[in-house]
């Protein structure tokens, strides 16, 4: 199989159910999901096995699920088996957020992306994830989509925020507080 097909030379690409221009909002949505997946892989490569084996395992699962998100978004209509992303996947993200959040100190102020290289990398994942979410919202305003993808991506950005904080914590680096912030967060119940 050749890597190049020349079928996109005219500015169109194939999606499930047809062809669209490469700058179509649908392509922007799943393309940003693909970009996010690359950043997740980069973050995983920065993790030491012993200290971050749980995160590596979870993030590798997320990489597979990001492919599922992209697949669902690239479909002009659901296939005979329906969509891949579902509410159970979203619930699992929430469980992971709750579990990892127990490792962090209470937030009182906004924090800046930073601390360790790994934390910074996970903050990049968070911000790219937010951009992907914006692209998915734009697509949803124009076409029917799997609504679970939008919810999944929203929750995923919260997980990246939490993992960035946990990585600083595990490596003994404090979060970088935004010094111009008032104390805006309440302590956990």
How does this structure look, described?
By secondary structure, this protein is mainly α. It has a single domain (12-177), classed as Hypothetical Protein Ta1238, Chain: A, CATH 1.20.1200. The chain contains 5 helices and 4 strands, in the order ββαααβααβ. The strands form 2 sheets. Strands 1-2 form a two-stranded antiparallel sheet. A two-stranded antiparallel ribbon has the order 3-4. α2 runs antiparallel to α5. The radius of gyration is 18 Å and the shape is elongated. The termini are far apart.
CATH fold description: Hypothetical Protein Ta1238, Chain: A
Number of strands: 4
How does CATH name the architecture? Up-down Bundle
Q: How many domains?
A: 1
Helices and strands, in N-to-C order?
EEHHHEHHE
Beta-strand portion reads 5-15%
What is the percent of helical residues? 55-70%
CATH superfamily: Cobalamin adenosyltransferase-like
Q: What value does the average pLDDT take? A: 92
Largest sheet geometry: 2 strands, antiparallel
Give the N-to-C terminal Cα separation: 57 Å
Strand order of the largest sheet: 1-2
CATH structural class: Mainly Alpha
Could you tell me the radius of gyration in angstroms? 18 Å
Overall form: elongated
Count of helices?
Answer: 5
């Amino acid at each position: 199989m050749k890597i190049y097909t020349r079928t996109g030379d005219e500015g169109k690409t194939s999606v499930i159910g047809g062809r669209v221009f490469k700058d179509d909002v649908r392509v922007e949505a799943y393309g940003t999901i693909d970009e996010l997946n690359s950043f997740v892989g980069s973050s995983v490569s920065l993790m030491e096995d012993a200290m971050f084996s749980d995160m590596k395992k979870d993030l590798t699962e997320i990489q597979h699920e990001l492919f599922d998100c992209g697949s669902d978004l690239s479909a002009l209509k659901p296939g005979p088996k329906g969509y891949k992303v579902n509410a159970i996947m979203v619930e699992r993200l929430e469980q992971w957020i709750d579990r990892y959040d127990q490792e962090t100190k209470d937030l009182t102020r906004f924090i800046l992306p930073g601390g360790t290289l790994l934390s910074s990398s996970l903050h990049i994942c968070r911000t790219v994830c937010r951009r992907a979410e914006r692209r998915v919202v734009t697509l949803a305003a124009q076409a029917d989509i799997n609504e679970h993808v939008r919810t999944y991506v929203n929750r995923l950005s919260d997980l990246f925020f939490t993992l960035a904080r946990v990585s600083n914590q595990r490596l003994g680096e404090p979060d970088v507080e935004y010094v111009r912030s008032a104390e805006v967060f309440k302590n956990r119940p």
